[in-house]
């Protein structure tokens, strides 16, 4: 069984260091996407500060400025988008530089339709393996120390940030941890190779994947591409089918659904069956 939901990915192009301008542009595009009534909107990596970390990697003397522009998890820009999610009744996922003390992490968060922060992920695959460059002494581009799925109103979710999509083990870890869908906020590769990797992660694990890249959106469901747009500042809306993983409750619901379709069954299923099935699809 599957739960079908509508999702939107936004290939938003941002400006490095212009946190206020990027946030205003984010809000405008989120409101535009929300008019199509998706349950979830995904935006790119590093969207608040405009992925300015690239400039700091090239010139570490800019590190103090980067720590200053990085946003605490309870900072005013995060609370602004929590309020927006609550106002629009839509879940949001986006990336930004998160300040923790005097360090910064490449972070992505999931905010539910009530404005609650359901979970976050720190990018674990920095640099050296993927051309960004990394030094253990850098406090402005710290790697994540754990990989965890988390619960949301849409089901258990896993986030991979950009280059992590090239690592099958990261996707597998998230799915083994219970993730029923994967989200990929990205800034970078928009080649056919990227598309193949994202498609592979969905097919390998039997879960839908939503990628919002700067300049490209890609949505995978049931192992096929169901949404794709090339170009910056584009909104892509599609439906994904989130699997209901095996449990006694889901097995009984499938059983009852099958028996209800039998020629020997009553034409209309019982009210009890209808309510049980609706509850399963809402909360699984």
Description of the structure:
This protein is of the alpha/beta class. It has two domains: 2-244, 4-Layer Sandwich (Nitrilase/N-carbamoyl-D-aminoacid amidohydrolase); 246-284. 32% of the residues lie in helices and 25% in strands. It has eight helices and eleven strands. It has helices at residues 19-34, 53-58, 63-69, 76-88, 168-176, 192-205, 248-260, 271-283; strands at residues 2-10, 40-42, 91-100, 103-111, 117-122, 157-159, 181-185, 209-213, 216-221, 224-230, 235-243. A six-stranded mixed beta sheet has the order 5-4-3-2-1-11. The protein has a five-stranded mixed beta sheet with strand order 6-7-8-9-10, covered by helices on one side. The longest helix is centred in the N-terminal third of the chain and has 16 residues, at 19-34. The termini are close together.
Summarize the structure.
This protein has helices spanning 19-34, 53-58, 63-69, 76-88, 168-176, 192-205, 248-260, 271-283; strands at 2-10, 40-42, 91-100, 103-111, 117-122, 157-159, 181-185, 209-213, 216-221, 224-230, 235-243.
């Amino acid at each position: 069984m599957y739960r079908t939901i509508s999702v939107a990915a936004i290939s938003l192009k941002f400006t490095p260091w212009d946190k206020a301008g990027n946030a205003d542009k984010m809000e405008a595009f989120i409101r535009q996407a929300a008019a199509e009534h998706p349950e979830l909107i995904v935006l790119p990596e590093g969207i608040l500060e405009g992925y300015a970390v690239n400039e700091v990697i090239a010139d570490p003397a800019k590190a103090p400025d980067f720590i200053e522009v990085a946003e605490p998890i309870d900072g005013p820009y995060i609370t602004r988008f929590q309020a927006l999610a609550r106002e629009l009744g839509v879940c949001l996922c986006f990336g930004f530089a998160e300040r923790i003390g005097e360090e910064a992490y490449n972070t992505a968060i999931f905010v539910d339709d009530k404005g609650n922060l359901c979970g976050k992920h720190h990018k674990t695959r920095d640099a050296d393996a993927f051309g960004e460059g990394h030094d253990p002494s850098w406090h402005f581009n710290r790697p994540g120390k754990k990989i965890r799925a988390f619960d949301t109103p849409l089901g258990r979710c896993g986030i991979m940030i950009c280059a992590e999509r090239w690592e099958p083990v990261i996707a597998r870890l998230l799915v083994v941890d219970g993730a029923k869908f994967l989200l990929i906020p990205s800034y970078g590769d928009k080649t056919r190779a990227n598309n193949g990797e994202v498609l592979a992660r969905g097919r390998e694990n039997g879960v839908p994947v939503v990628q919002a890249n700067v300049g490209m959106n890609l949505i995978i469901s049931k192992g096929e591409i169901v949404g794709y747009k090339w170009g910056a500042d584009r909104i892509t809306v599609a439906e994904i089918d989130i699997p209901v993983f095996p449990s006694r409750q889901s097995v009984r619901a499938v059983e009852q659904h099958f028996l209800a379709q039998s020629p020997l069954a009553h034409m209309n299923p019982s009210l009890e069956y209808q309510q049980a099935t609706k509850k399963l699809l809402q909360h699984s």
